[in-house]
Amino acid sequence: MDIRWDRVFLARHGQTEWNLQRRRQGQLDSPLTAGGVEQAHRHAAHLRPHAVDAIFASPLGRARATADIIGGHLGLPVVAIDELAEVHHGSFAGLTDEEIDARDPDSWRRRSADKYGWSFPDGESYADADVRAGHALARIGGYPARRPLLVSHEMIGRMLRRHLLGLDPDEALAGVQPHDVIYSIDPRG
């Protein structure tokens, strides 16, 4: 990857109703909670002194709403990048882990055997999302930003960090990104 960014900021969308219910959203959506809206406002306050010069977001409503709040504070428009959408959870989208267990009791065992390559039924794998993350970064690299903010999701965020930090898949999959955390990455090392 041709690195020309001084810094890249990665934020996860604010907390949603389905996050509280522990439902897998994937590429479905649920609205931000009042706490999720407040997280977006805090992100903006935190980012203000860091000279963010562009905002890119997943097109999914929860990420776009978070990015719009931040952009409003920073006076920056938001550019939607389709490849920043969350991993597609296929037929498991909208379900809790307990509901998934009732429907397909062996699914988590199969997933733990190959977390990177395993695909959600009728959905995507981390390997698929890894390719999308690379495409997203390449598209964003075509903009003149030096300090972009990317607002996306936890699972695709792992793959974005993988590309930006040169992590192997297992290292990337070990990471988490709570709703109230912003990663500040120097992609040059």
UniProtKB/TrEMBL annotation:
Renumbered to this chain, the signal peptide range is none
Question: Cross-referenced Gene3D superfamilies, in alphabetical order?
Answer: Phosphoglycerate mutase-like
Taken from the UniProt entry, a GO cellular component term is: cytoplasm
- List the active-site residues: 13 (tele-phosphohistidine intermediate), 86 (proton donor/acceptor)
Tell me the GO molecular function terms: phosphatase activity
Q: Which Pfam families match?
A: His_Phos_1
Q: Which UniProt keywords apply?
A: Glycolysis, Isomerase
Indicate yes or no for the key word Isomerase. Answer: yes
In this chain, substrate is annotated as bound at: 12-19, 62
| The protein's name | Phosphoglycerate mutase
